[in-house]
Design a protein that fits this description.
By secondary structure, the chain is of the alpha/beta class. The chain folds into two domains: about 100 residues, Winged helix-like DNA-binding domain superfamily/Winged helix DNA-binding domain (Arc Repressor Mutant, subunit A), CATH 1.10.10.10; about 120 residues, NAD(P)-binding Rossmann-like Domain (Rossmann fold), CATH 3.40.50.720. Helix content is about 50%, strand content about 15%. It is built from ten helices and ten strands. It has a seven-stranded mixed β-sheet with strand order 6-7-5-4-8-9-10. The longest helix is centred in the last third of the chain and has 22 residues. It is globular and about 60 Å long. It starts with a helix and ends with a helix.
Length: about 240
């Protein structure tokens, strides 16, 4: 990304932040509330597809399996967005949730690890729907370097730092083998990126770098499901 384009982007991001309002980024909002915001995003998107223009907290409650009181509390953390007895304007609330989640920020991302998981992620519509543009992948295998996967080309991992600066990459998704996660994480800690979405299974904490790290453990999610299934089977057997 050229210096001119980077400056233009920084200016547009600052304008968007002002439009959203500083109250939308209150540091005291609990992590539990933040983790529910993407669910609001998904359900509101579904309501828009259904042509629904208004929704009450009670209706959202039934859809999301969250109490109406909890929904009101969550949204009040960011200003409310609704009126008692009138509900929420679906399009307006969706727009505000998108702003809070940074959907309109136009983040540019790269994937490190162009194997099965990395390729599958890039090939999904997930990034486009959430306003993230995947502009590059990186790998060490000559079999994939130079190829295009979805909208992006695969580059040699040795070019990581150079391409991050060239393309103005802000988010990096790690889908490489676990044993290489820390090494690549250390390299990224010296790059001008803002976030890492880490699928390697290796917990990353980059200390003073200021980079936000979201460690995703797919195996943990599977084990949680297994626990719930085991509990259900045990309960069912006890009732017999």
């Amino acid at each position: 990304m050229s210096t001119k384009k980077r400056i233009e982007k920084e200016e547009s991001l600052e304008l968007l932040r002002r439009e959203v309002g500083r109250d939308s980024f209150r540091p005291e909002v609990s992590p539990a509330v933040i983790k529910r915001l993407p669910r609001y995003f998904r359900y509101l998107r579904e309501l828009i597809r259904m042509g629904k223009t208004r929704v009450s907290s009670a209706e959202l409650s039934k859809m999301m399996n969250v109490t109406a009181s909890q929904i009101r509390q969550d949204l009040n953390c960011f200003g409310g967005f609704g009126q008692q007895g009138y509900g929420y304007n679906v399009n307006y609330l969706y727009t505000k949730i998108c702003e809070i989640l940074g959907v309109g920020f136009g983040f540019r991302a790269a994937v490190v690890g162009a194997g099965n998981l990395g390729s599958a992620l890039v090939g999904s519509p997930m990034f486009e729907k959430r306003g993230v543009d995947v502009v590059a992948l990186f790998d060490v295998s000559p079999a994939v370097i130079g190829k295009k996967i979805g909208p992006a080309r695969v580059y040699d991992l040795s070019e990581l730092e150079e391409k991050i600066k060239e393309f103005g990459i802000e988010i990096v998704i790690l889908t490489l083998p676990k044993e290489h996660a820390e090494e690549v994480g250390m390299r990224l800690s010296a790059c001008p990126i803002h976030g890492i979405w880490n699928f390697t299974g290796k917990e990353l904490a980059l200390g003073e770098s200021g980079i936000v790290v979201e460690n995703v453990h797919i195996g943990d999610s599977l084990m949680t499901l297994c626990y719930e299934v085991a509990q259900k089977l045990t309960s069912d057997n006890e009732k017999k």
